[in-house]
Each structure stands twice: as structure tokens, then as C-alpha cells.
Amino acid sequence: MAAINAPTPTRPTTRQDVKELQKGCDVELEAVREDFQALLTHSGIEMLDQRTLTSHQDDIEALALELAKIRKRYKWQGALLPWSQQKHWAQASETHREIGAVGRRVATTQERLEQLKGKLVIRFQGGSVRFHEGRGPAGSFGEVKKVWLHAEGEQSRPMAMKLPTIRHSGEHDDVLRRFRREATIWRLLHHNHVNTLWDLKEPEDTTHGELLMLSPWADNEYGTATAFLQDKENCNQTLKVISDILSGLDYLHRHSFPVYHGDLKGNNVLIFGDSQNPVAKLTDFGLSKYCAPIVLSATLVGGNSFWTAPEIIVARYSHPQSTGTLTAQADIWAFGATAFELLTRSEIPFRDCKQTEMNKLLVSAPGLIDEEMTDYLQCIPVEIRGMIKACLSADPSGRPDSQSLKRVWHLTISQPSGIRFQEWTEVLTKISEPYCHYYPTSSKNPDGWSSWRMWMNERREERRGRYPKVKRVISVSS
User: Fold this and answer.
1) Burial group, residue 358, by CB count within 10 angstroms (0-12, 13-18, 19+)
2) 139 DSSP β-pair partners
3) Of 67, 104, 106, 190, whose CB has the highest number of CB atoms within 10 Å?
4) pLDDT tens digits, one per residue of 22-58
5) Which helix (H) or strand (E) holds 158?
6) Residues 6 or more apart from 327 whose CB is under 8 A from it?
7) At the top level of CATH, which class does the domain 225-470 belong to?
8) What is the Cα–Cα distance from 239 to 235, expressed in whole angstroms?
9) Around 243, how many Cα atoms within 13 Å sit in the side-chain half-sphere?
10) Alpha-carbon dihedral 189, 191, 193, 196, rounded to 10 degrees
11) How confident is the model at residue 340 (pLDDT cuts 50, 70, 90)?
């Protein structure tokens, strides 16, 4: 039957669709009527009772009413179609305007965020860095700043940028030569406890310098090992940090072509990770020596006197035209001084001395230096005292090499009853007065500095009789 087999109409989208659907409704209604008439003339019509005929008539009327409703609905849809299309375009235009406004706000916000990273920009091949004006901490032959690196195809990230420091035109070529030499050494080093050189770049605009070095920025609030361990909350990480430093130094010394750092100290050790899982990494290789077939070494040897080996200081004073020779043994002394600095939570080791007094001490008789170091080391745990004392031997030949030092260090602190598995504050309580002047262990005497200095003065007075020529060397600063 035609009406039963008619296709289901689809939703109209244009005026023509509406007209076609209305026409279809009329055709279907007429088909139903024809089907009913055919039913009445069927050969078996006589057998149908009046109730059946009435039922079919009711079905046809109901179907006709439903088709009339559908026709009316399609008629209204046809009338509303132009208005609906107009409203749709208006909404689309408004949405487009809103998207444009949001895009402009996003661009403005991004620009403000970029401004927060700094207003100064240095561009170079492959990217740029953005940073704030002002001086950063000084490294060897350069100034270090936090910058935001924008490399092509990558998200911006914080980096440490080192710029060469040229104080006057006469040192221009020499400073740049040192700067390139540092990069040459640094880019060869790849170790978990040595910071990575990302690249050496030549800026398009040389306003801020002709060269710059980029390396990862320490991603925590402390930055350096010195600052990290001065916070008492981090004291349990003391041995971990020193172990990392020793691992990095051993890597340098046992590199296929050994590298001597030349300026090892707490502020040249960066701390990555968080307070519970710190990772210490050596940085700043401006005073390093690379023992390749073509030796690359710094013009200046040794850094600050508080971390510099006696033989380097003696060379400076004895032969002003010669700067001495950087050696593995000199690095071991610097490690001992750095370990002492970090163990005692001080900004510099041997903090009761001024730098001039430290210089005088280090050019004194080896016996006096050894006795002075022995007295200083009374304030660190006895378990590691012997190892640090060996590092601070006035005689370079008495200092251990990095490999044997690392082995003994790890065996000592990692044995089942070793201090690595003890609370650091508990370890320090074993250090008696007045030696515990950096780590107060008694509420009655929160700072044993005065009593320690009194004891140290007495020790120095006693030494004056045996080392009369060094009277000024062993005086204590006020």
C-alpha cells in the first residue's frame, strides 16, 4: 500500500524543502484515501462487519489529522526559516567578535607575562633570552644572570646566562679568550654532578657583550650548596651534597683528559631538585685546566684564598710574574675547604680570619698550617675528620687522590652504623664545647663562637713559641 511504504520525511533546511514536504503530506493523505476505497471494493467486503469498517474509518481520520498537524508544522518552519538563518548569522558574527576579543586579551596577557620575565632581550641565531636589568652574582671572568630562553620550536624555560666582564678596553681580547676557553672545557663534560653547558652564543646586538654562555638554572629557592645548607631544615642532606661534589670532582680528575676545576667552593656548586632529593652539580669552569694534548689552562690560577691550596698562594707571593700550576692536589685541598665550609654552615671556611690573614697563614711553615687545620677540624664529626684533615695537608703529596678519597668516604659514611643513617643533629651533639661553634647544641650556650675563639687564641699563643716568625699570621681578627 502506497501510504504505508511512503519514505520518512527529513527535516527541512530551505524554503524549497518545506514546499516539497507539504506536497508529500498531501500525496500521502490522498494515498490513504485511495487505499481505503480499494479496501471497500475488495471481493471480501461483504464479510466485513460494520464495527470493522468504523475502525478503519477512525484510523483514516486520525491519520489525516496527524498529517494536517505535520503540514502545519512544516509551514511554520518554512515561515521561520529566513529569521532563523538571520539569527544564526548574527550569533556567528557575535561569536567571531568574542573570539577576537579573547584572542587580543590572551595576547596582552602573554605580553605582560613576557614583561615579567624581563624587559631586556638578547637575540642570537636560533632564539633569544629575556632578563631583568641589574647585576647578578659574579663568576670567574663573568657575571651570571637568570634569563628566560626562547629557543625556536620550544617553550620558554629559565636558564643561567654568563656574560664576560670587561672592566677596561685593554683586557677585552684576554677576557674573551678566557671565556671561549671555559666554554671549550665545559662542553666536554657530561656527568650527573657536573652542570651542563647548553651553548655558547654570539648575540646579534653586542650591547651586553660579544659572547654569552647558557646553562640550566638551579630550580629551587637556594641555588648554591652554601645557601642550601645554611638552612637548618636541610641539615640532613649535608653528607649527600658533599658526596655529590666528590663524585663530580672524581669525574673531572678521571676524565679521559683530566680536568682540574681550579675554583671549587660552595658557591660554585648548584643544587637542583627539591629539599628532600637535592642533586649537587659543579659549575663555573673559568679557572679550570684541561690536560689534553694541547693543554688549556687559565692565565690566573686559584680562586679565593679561603679555598686555595698553600702551594698556589706561595707561588703568587714568591714569583709575582708566575701564577703557579693548577694540579689535582690543589683541587683536593679546595674540596677539603669546601667540605669544611658546608659541614660548619659558614659562608667561608675558617671564618675568623680575614683574607689577608689567611694568605699569611698559607705561606707559613707547613707544620703550622697542619696544626691550624687540625684545630679547626675539631668542630666537625670525628668519623670524617681524618679524611678532611688529609685533604687539608700542607704537603700536596700527603693529600689523597679523588678516587681513593671517594672510596674511603663512601665506605665510612655508608657502613651500617655510619653517620649517613643518623639524624644530623644527633651526629653534631657528639661534638663537645667549644668546638660546636657553628652548630649550637645546647640551649644554655646557643652560640659557642666566643668560647671557641678564646680556645683558638690560646692554641695560637702556644704556637707562637714554636713558630716565632709567623706571629702576625696567626692573629685572630676582632
Assistant:
1) buried
2) 142
3) 67
4) 666 666 666 666 665 665 555 444 444 555 556 666 6
5) strand 157-164
6) 260, 396
7) mainly alpha
8) 9
9) 17
10) 50
11) very high
314 grid coordinates: 706561595
| 149 CA to centre of own chain | 13
What's the rounded Cα separation, in Å, for the pair 383 and 411? 11
- Cα separation of 295 and 259, whole Å? 10
Alpha helices in 273-401 (DSSP H): 310-318, 328-343, 355-362, 366-376, 382-391
Any idea which architecture 122-216 has in CATH? 2-Layer Sandwich (3.30)
Strand duo 199-201 + 269-272: pairing: unpaired
**pLDDT, tens only, 389-403:** 999 999 999 999 999
Q: Which long-range contacts (CB under 8 A, 24 or more apart) does 468-476 make?
A: 469/365, 470/360, 470/361, 470/364, 470/365, 470/368, 472/357, 472/360, 473/357, 473/360, 473/361, 473/363, 473/364, 473/368, 474/361, 474/364, 474/368, 474/372, 475/357, 476/352, 476/353
Beta bridge partners of 282: 194, 269
Q: Say yes or no to pLDDT of 475 above 50.
A: no
At 202, list the grid cell. 654570539
Q: What is the pLDDT of residues 59-95, one digit of tens each?
A: 667 776 776 777 676 666 666 667 666 776 777 777 7
Q: What is the value of pTM for the model shown?
A: 0.73
Residues 209, 376: contact at Cβ < 8 Å? no
Q: 10 Å Cβ neighbour count for 461?
A: 10
| Whether residue 477 has pLDDT greater than 50 | no
